[in-house]
Amino acid sequence: MKIWEQFLSNLEQELGPDLVRQWLRSLKLTRFDAANLYLEASDPMQIAWFEEHIRPRLKNKFFNENHRPIKVHLDGPGLKKSNAPWFAPESLTFAPNAIDPACTFDEFIVSPGSQVAVSLLKESVTSSSFNPIFLYGPPGSGKTHLLMAFAAEIAKHKKVFFVKADTFTEHVVQAIRVSRMQDFRKAYRDVDVLLVDDIDHLANRAATQEEFFHTFNNLHTLGKQIVLTATLPPSKLEEIEARLISRFEWGISLGLEKLPARTILQKKALTWNVPLNDTLLDFLLTRFPNDPLLALQAIALRAPSNIPLSPLAAEPLLHDLLKAEAVKAVTPERIVKALSTHFGIKPEDLLGKQQSREFAFPRQIAMYLCREKLQMPFQAIGKFFGRDHSTVMSSAKQIQKLLEEKDPAVLSALSNL
């Protein structure tokens, strides 16, 4: 549609070609007529960005050749109808995430590499010299535990808002869709302390980063305490705007180290009164590589008190966790390796640029599995395979169609995974 293309070209002069390419040219034009234009987005974040930044620009600027306004309808996966919220606007609340009462300073296992962070947070409950405080470390290093412990202590005399970065994103999207940004901003800015877990999850989320930038500035200017966590220090975060990175570095950044899982399990077993012998310990570490502590906690809650357990006796108690662990064991890398073996090609060829059916067909199946089995976003799959998200969407639809037609090649590949 020439009129839409002209509108995008004009926006490139105003917003820049990179922003238009990322957020607008990736929209799928499904159909149009003289008075309507129908677009399809790949995810709710793209819809939210459009509604906030583009919808206002369409007013009095988007006309057909007869100078009559063209209405733009934006739809996306999972939406019942264009521009319709998936919840009742009046029922929307911007509530913080719950804090686990078990996550206290006393229960935190302090390692040599985390002593400084623990001491600083305890001191900051009453008075802080640093703002923001930025905690970073690998999964399992205790970032969330410390953040919750700090939240519980400081909430005794200050108004605290603890939230995961993914929840912050959901709140932004919902607030934009139902025109309640003022309520959203009041919820996040009318506080004494803002704590955000996994701030690195804002990567590639332009509209959310924009809103967090202004939220951060507002709170920091008023002297309100901000504490953030991430897997990496600010300087190494990817796909986060430079202006946010610089603000994360205004205060102090402290790294946490991950204790050996064996040490954590042994100490927690004493706290929870679980008789943990070496055999059971090895079983937990081997069968629950992603989260052995969760399995130990389940034993503490489900097993008869103070009765030594063997792996054989523990398995029935942990059947649901064992099933979940099996699902977690599937990764994009393992999908690629399994399909490469099945089709007799190299993993690097499956991930490569060759478009012959020998490589493209296994690649399409791999993309489909990453979407269906792992529930990965299209953009994340595209990044892993070195493709854009529209290619991933097309591949997934193609394999789904072949499955419905009971294509033997697809069925054979999936049966061997």
Number of separate strands: 8
Overall mean confidence score, pLDDT: 84
Question: Can you write the helix and strand succession as a string?
Answer: HHEEHHEHEHEHHEHEHEHHHHHHHHHHH
Strand order of the largest sheet: 5-6-7-4-8
Q: Globular, elongated, flat, extended or rod-shaped: what is the shape?
A: flat
Tally of individual helices? 21
Query: What is the makeup of the main sheet?
Result: 5 strands, parallel
- Please mark out the parts with pLDDT under 50 across 5 or more consecutive residues, or reply none: 78-88
Strand content: 5-15%
Quote the distance from N terminus to C terminus: 43 Å
Q: Could you say which structural class the secondary elements and strand pairing correspond to?
A: alpha/beta
Describe this protein's structure:
It is a single chain. The radius of gyration is 25 Å and the shape is flat. Strand 6, helix 9 and strand 7 form a beta-alpha-beta unit. The protein has helices at residues 2-15, 17-23, 44-53, 55-58, 115-124, 143-154, 165-177, 181-189, 206-221, 242-248, 261-271, 278-287, 292-302, 311-317, 319-328, 332-343, 347-350, 357-372, 378-385, 389-404, 408-415, and strands at 28-32, 36-40, 71-75, 133-136, 160-164, 193-197, 225-230, 252-255. It is built from 21 helices and eight strands. The chain has 417 residues and is α/β, with parallel strands linked by helices. The protein has a five-stranded parallel beta sheet with strand order 5-6-7-4-8, sandwiched between helices. It has a three-stranded mixed beta sheet with strand order 1-2-3, with no helix packed on it. Mean pLDDT is 84; it is low at 78-88.
